[in-house]
Amino acid sequence: MINIKNADLINIDDDYETAINKAKKLYLEGTIFAYPTDTIYGFGANPFNEEAIKKIDEIKKREMGKQYILLIGSIELLLKYIEIKSEKHLDFLLAIWPNPVSVILSLNSKTSEILKTKTAAFRIPNNRFCLKLLKTLQMPLISTSVNRSNQTPLNELNLIEEEFGSELGAIFYTGKKSFPKSSTLIDLSDSIPTLVREGKIKFEDILAKFK
Questions:
Q1: Engineered SS bond to 52: which of 30, 40, 93, 200, CB 3.0-4.6 Å?
Q2: Distance between CA atoms of 114 and 24, rounded to whole angstroms?
């Protein structure tokens, strides 16, 4: 008989520091976990761990090689991984974050070689748990919707546990009310922002900050 271990269920409202430490341990081990963000629940993992990326691809039944949004804790940390084209772009990022707005940016040569892509989408999330975890990690964190490919994202603990409980190291959850909607995704790898996907924040409101 095969004994399948289900994911640990961790209420971040009950023991905040323990939750952060557990998430950090899973991240460093290359284990996948689910967690609440400033948009919908996400699968989390280390984007520089090839095995972790492969595991997320397998869990989501997603075509390998597609890019995931990366959460980052600060502009200062972001600058370690990207090439900023102008001070105007930097001012723009400072104006829109932290917020549920993900931005595709050009990677520097070192990061591009590691991730095998020229661009990646980043976001500084407007979420206390995420920001604390990112500050603790001092590295980017994958954030991708909790669902199989082409299926509706799951945003409730019982549904996430039922569908993915045997495939994750932990499910971090909160009892606080959420308003599940994906982040707005824009492309800033060229000179001006272009809309890829409109989500929680309207593109026209974002564009108004590009001055």
A1: 30
A2: 21
pLDDT in tens, 1-43: 344 568 999 999 998 899 999 999 999 999 999 999 999 999 9
* Cis, bond preceding 98 (omega within 30 deg of 0): yes
The third-level CATH classification (topology) of the domain covering 8-207 is DHBP synthase (3.90.870)
| Residue 12 exposed, middle or buried by CB count within 10 Å (0-12, 13-18, 19+) | buried
pTM, two decimal places: 0.94
Parse the chain into domains and list their residue ranges.
Answer: 8-207
Contacts of 119 (CB under 8 A, 6+ apart): 67, 104, 105, 106, 107, 189
Cα-based distances in Å from 117 to 82, 83, 110, 113: 12, 13, 11, 7
